[in-house]
Records
---
Amino acid sequence: MSITVETYPTLREAASAMRDGTRFLGGGTMVVRGLNFGAQTYDRVVRSTDAALRDIRSDGTGLHIGAGVTMAQIMQTASTDFLAPVARAVGGPAVRNMATVGGNLFARAPYGDFGTALLALDATVQMADGQSLAIETFYAHRAGSRGLVAAVTVPRPASGAFRFAKITRTRPKGASLLCIAAHLPGGTRISGARLAFGAMGPTPLRAKEAEAALDGAALDPAGIQRALDTCLNGLDPQDDALASAWYRRAVAPVHLRRLLLGEET
Amino acid sequence: MPKTPIRFTLNGAETGVFANSGANLLDVLRREAGDLTPKQGCAQGGCGACSVMIDGELHLACLTLAETAEGRRIDTVASLETGARLHPLQKAFAEGFAAQCGFCSPGMIMAAKALLDTTPNPTREQVAEAISGNLCRCTGYEPIINAILTAAAELRGRGAA
């Protein structure tokens, strides 16, 4: 298949060049991988050199992270320190120099750890056409989306209120059997918890019954029990080469317990 | 198939190639530019055998669209030695049995160089993390980690001299 590559100076121009059979190139870890195997459904690649894609800045409500920001950039930037453990969990050093925040939103399970964290943090996805989507809405419609992501905005969590665990078979690098991101505001009595699971469905998914079960709870064995009992509701894990859906269901509550109690995961 | 002209600096030399549109940088380095040091293992970002530096930053050549290398500085393991004189990393790999079949070595050494460029005195854990994207099926990694620590010590000694 003959491939066409087009480069645009602004994201807006790149967005208007998108059509069927076209993929936007971020860091290349998914799009070029597809080209290498020749079975991809696209023969046209659009990219943009827009410097705004690499912006990280703080504004009134939180952080603005450009879609082209890499995992390595997240790890090196002081204002994104709470996301550094998540970025560090993605790939090895070379992948982290390439893989982007925007691309991670389109990664299929078992990939997409960073998006899982953004889901737990109630991030907003800013599309190139100016539309803003709650990240949960973005994920619900991702399969049919033709829009380009320009940036995400992330409210900064209170210190210590955000936790993340990635469960892999190999360390330090391996794809997720599952990952869990938890935003636990409220200190001693949790209020407005968010629990997001990665690799437990086609996109990262929230465990909403477990979130509700944590309302007013203390992070002790009795306080979290109902959340553990309900955390699988709404999740939809799949079999893959790393783990079966059965195994993922069996171990997810165990890892959630460890994360909520602050034990080693 | 349409060809795209691409210019970059390869191991210090101005280089121009005509690449198949949509080709990855690894193919272009090996087939068009004639640098056979970066290897193709998995072609999907899992093995690190194609690791090269782009503008001083470790990247996987197999997942880099060749067009994006325009105007950039590409360094492969071939950039390290000067004539017959090996770089301390190459020397430590050879002397410490850190290479057996040798297929992973070009990528492994570039991953190690990326670490030592920013962290001249790494811990064992930092070395393990730095090569975590590079697979070796021969050595069991211990000789590689030891070789990188040996090379780091030699490079620090040179800096002090």
---
Amino acid sequence: MSEGDDPALRKTITDLLASGLETKVEPFPKTEKEFIEIAAELRTLDPKDIKGKLVLSGFMDHPYGPESWRCMECIYYLAHRKWCDLPELAVPVEPDWYCRLWRM
Amino acid sequence: MTNLLWLQGGACSGNTMSFLNAEEPSVCDLVTDFGINVLWHPSLGMELGDNLQKMLRTLVSGKLSLDVFVFEGTVIRAPDGTGEWNRFAGRPMKDWVQELAQVANYTVAIGDCASWGGIPATAPNPTESVGLQFLKRDHGGFLGKNYRSKADLPVINVPGCPAHPDWITQIIVAIATGRGAELSLDDLQRPKTFFSSFTQTGCTRNMHFAYKVSATEFGQRKGCLFYDLGCRGPMTHSPCNRILWNRQSSKTRAGMPCLGCTEPEFPFFDLAPGTVFKTQTLMGIPNALPAGIDRKGYIKLMATAKATAPRWAEDDIFVV
Amino acid sequence: MSTEVQTLDISPVGRVEGDLDVRVDIQDGVVVNAWTQAALFRGFEVILRDKDAQAGLVVTPRACGICGASHLTCAAWALDTAWQTEVPRNAILARNLGQIAESLQSISRHHYGLFIVDYTNKNYAKSQFYEEAVRRWAPFTGRNYEIGITISGRPVEIYALFGGQWPHSSYMVPGGVMCAPTLTDVTRAWSILEQFRRSWVEPVWLGSSMERYEQIRSYDDFLAWLDEKPEHANSDLGLFWRMSNDIGLSNYGHGHGRYFSWGYLPHEDKYNKPTIEGRSAAVIMKGGVYDGRTDVHSVMDQAFTREDTIHAWYDEPGGLHPFERTTTPTQRTSTDFSGKYSWSTAVTHADVGRLETGPLARQVIAGGDHGEAWQNFDPLLLDMYRKMGGASVTLRHFARMHEVVRLYREAERILREFRLKDLWYVKPTERDGRGWGATEAIRGALGHWIEVQGGKIKNYQIIAPTTWNIGPRAASGERGPIEEALIGTPVADARDPVEVGHVCRSYDSCLVCTVHAHDSRTGEELARFRTA
């Protein structure tokens, strides 16, 4: 279930990423097994620990990888709300961002 | 009169229970309106001579015509091919099946177990179970690749775990009304009329499939079950969303991912750890794509759909 | 009169959860010894080993197409306790509704399809009620047979609204349910319930309003109700009761006289953090043990469960708790009534011994003053049990049918209690551990024991009601419940031992089939007959 936009949170995340926050963009979860392990780890974080979420899920503020994947094509991206619908993340995002929980 | 005999091997009786849910025709209608003479069925109290074994022998000898032989459940061959782990009426059930299939005008496998082994044949297949003419996707099964019933048809497979009552009753009515020859079967010997469309055909979540919105967890009021929850609706042949279950709904409508139970591979991946209710992916893309779509096409479709999805698709749709 | 012992081998008596074969020794027209034999092995516990932790949600409903919702209930709660999930109240209600829908279906279907058709057996042609029984209950053509079979499909439409289909949905999952119903699902479910009541429960089964029937709290009340109006006496319940007494079914089928129930239907606000230990105090329909010989009720705990394999086709030590079992089938399955003769284990209570399970067990326990004050209490069957001198074929079947009204009321309450805007599911974290899930399938106590290790199933054990009831002798030599209940059964005609079938079927069953009787000395076939 997604929530409404949160301009303050969006700004926090934007700033964190712009400041060069080092996140675990690699390794990409090759199969469902690795994906679930990351998601399970995300659930152990304090829901307010935004920085922790960004680091663990490998957020970047630009497309990534040989095929330049980005939020925009990700199954969890809600375009009109610019929101990540993955319950473990549930954060505002931008279409050109990316994280390693990307899937389609 | 159409003589019908229904036996169960390695079965849970789920197909029988499903069959008893039938309306139009109901089980009683089949008898009274369509002249189905149920010679014997394990759960129904029918007119029957005192002597089941004698009746079975009369059928085998050809003195009594066996128009429809319905089998539910696997053919159990354990231990060591003897079939002793499923004895029936004084001998291994498999021996009855072998003999009855030779004299039947039509042989019908009801449910996955009889069609291709189903759950009992899941690894390690402790009961050496096999379907009538298939073991999973391998043609042959118990009766062999070349088996034909007296009406010159192979075993008619009506898979599903369980099969829907309408799929069962309509086949029986077709035979009883002399239209058995018109049954057209696919390469897995399923009646095409039921098994050419997909489980997804008619699913209420189709719009979310089209606009790429996922039901990321159970209990949500929007989203398609294909992307995260392992739904096999786009790859599974069944009319589950055309002919509703119990006249009301379907698994996918109620929020349960399709398990692909009308296909020979069910239960998929032999229920290996990590595979239940989870879409299997490779580098972020589902391993099993909708029928007929390749990876490249899928990516293109996805990008386009995401870019054009309307605002409403992001909101709950199955609201209170 | 001859005192020679005649041995009848009756094969098969049973189906559905497996074939049941019975051997009885008859002396002076009465059964003096009996052996029950489960004749089919499908190896579900073997299949589940090393599979996905959630595989039981897919596999176990398919262990029994009749009690699939009950298996699913157990599979889900077993994982809930192992994973230490949180289960929202809506989900508890939705699971209970599925369980109840299945039971309502089974009550009507079993009664007409499997049980009452025997009353049309020519064996009872001399009964004053016979002609009417044939008119109503003859297979396919009987007036009420058709009504009963058709109506039995209705309650599971409610199951489909919440679970997608019946049988074989897996909509109950650790952490809740898969569905998120809307108001129309609830209102439609109401309408289906209402139709079930208006077209069968009241006009056909009771001949009375449910409200009037609910006033019956004692045996005397029941007899007064029966005499109150011709509609009551001539209802299917009234005719069943009067004819059962007329044809002697109230006189045999006693059994051990010891009963147990796991209890079922967890309260929506009391089992949201499920644990193995916390279950008994959280269920609406209370569990327990009732010893009819001493007239004492006590509490039940899954830790008392033991399985003997000395007479069962498994190569395992006896007396194990399900968590300790390995399900190792023996390869040699020849029948030896002094050795191994069944696929069913002999389930025992570590302190009390063999126990009967089923609707009668639930109902005599519902009459006890043990348990929590808020739990369901219903004194009728216990009163009947005491006043009628214990169990019988009639009482066992009556107990089953009696539950229809109470379950109906609980379904109504659930539909009122759903809070549609609240949660239906809380995603759990998968972890290793041991779990136990239990319920009462219509035919009795069902339990699943699971051990998850390394994210996969290390051990999965199912003990079905039928296992408790049809198990072979225990290591102590004590007979299984049905074996015991067969003792004293009169057999008027050894060539048509319909009475043996009655006893087996009064344990509900799924025990439908053709029974054939052989003379054990000559091997000559005496008779074969349908038990349903």
---
Amino acid sequence: MLNSLWHTLFAPGFFSSSAVWRALSMSAAVAVVSGMVGVFAVVRGQSFAGHALGDFGTTGASGAFLAGLNAVWGFLGVGLIAGAIMDTLGKRAKERDIATGVVLSLILGIGALFLYFDTTYRNTTGAPMTILFGSVFLVDPSLLPFVLCFDGLAVLLLFIIYRPLLFSSLNVDLARAKGVPARLISILFMSALAMAVEQSAIVVGALLSTALLIGPAAIAIRFTHRPGKAMLVASMIGIFSSWMGILLAYDSYNWPPVNRGWPVSFFIASIILLLYILSHLRLRMGTRRGKKVLQEG
Amino acid sequence: MYLRSVANTAPDPVLTVKQVSVRFGSRRVLDNISLELQAGDFVGLIGPNGAGKTTLLKVILGLQPPDAGKVEMEGKVIHRGNSRVGYVPQKISLDPDTPMSARDLVALGLDGHRWGIPLPSRKRWAAVDEALAAVDALRYANAPVGKLSGGEQQRLLIAQALLTQPKLLLLDEPLSNLDIRSAHEVVRLVSRISREQNLAILLVAHDMNPLLGAMDKIVYLAEGRAAMGSVDEVVQSHVLSQLYGYDVEVIRVQGRILVVGGEAPLPVNQSISVWDEALTHVE
């Protein structure tokens, strides 16, 4: 009885499959980076920049496919360049968002063209699906060390710029007056953001990379008001959602249409959204209870 | 002889602004401004909107290089990030979800410009608590900053500016957006800190009335020109008329001072702004 329940939860072969282990470890690494960087992206109001970086990455990845390279290099290369360009576009968040929005459609158009060539000339029909919606089960095992390496780099970068970044996220004028090189910090953060977004593009796809970046961070800052704790909680939520997503995707192999698993990204994005809604509900109930106590007191 | 010896023993000024001019394109924002602050001076920098008050603060902070003249802090030319200068910027509004406690925010004043993550240190938090106590903010030391009121956030920013033990504290419009009572509270607080720590204060405001009892000197800025001295010396019709470049009248009513624009040979909107000032003074 217990045994059958176990097998319903974890379909046979889940723990023995090397692809599953690879997916679990890779998504955990990506979730940690996304969660940590995401807290700052949310606080700095750069959610849109994060989303745009994912879209820019699409064009890079489809270009890389066309050139016969692995999509990962396209994601990272274009993401880092686009991040640097977006940072120089405007000093104010609004300015930057408008400029980014204008360029975004052009870049996505080029991406669509690349994807079309991918499917016609190179005969890789899976390319659009893989790039746009991710496929953590299909990532080339030889790339794992590189991905982990870039993850480590992004975390290291974030640790180095932590204090000045926190300061200039609070108020740029104040930080500059205290001697913080705000421009440099902003560019360095954009690089960390690009790395985080493009990494999660590999796991959940370019279109949904924002889910891992913004979702867990947005949930985390509702519950904690210390920066370090928020980063930790966001990472944990990211790991939980992506592991649950992988588990469900593995189980879905037996769901209709049988023997074709559902995309992991669908599950991860749904779980994050569910948690986000729950966090809103809980918080509301919390404040209502708080008010009641105040009234009674 | 006597006069000279007095001049020699007079303390060196904390801040010296020497003949500073700033132009934005063809517009003269600051025109040959000079002023001096001694330790413990509480000086109000007063003037209508667009007079160049914030620009002058930026020059003093080293954020805006002047086109002419220079600024010295304790005899040395200023530079950006001087730990002897504390700064509280104009209306900061923090997002309600900002993941920071009051302590976190204040601690940035100590080492927010340093690289890396802060190492756990009892000394660091003791310094933070001391600054919080100086502005009566220990009560909400652990509260999330985004949930605090504008006045409470302002106290935290003052505490943050005090952490490096500055000799000069610059406050940009700390009284705007505050009701009259809270404004008087902030003035009392700043005035007390100035006395306790022998700190020179330069407080920017567009309305001088909440500062009347507290400030030692006034710097009145209009049309990029400045006059400095005691309130009685500076706030006179002929002095201010010279600054504005047209006739204004100073009226004293029930202990309050109103500056009323006269026949201004200026575009209509500018003369209206002077009248606006007068109206805000009356309220």
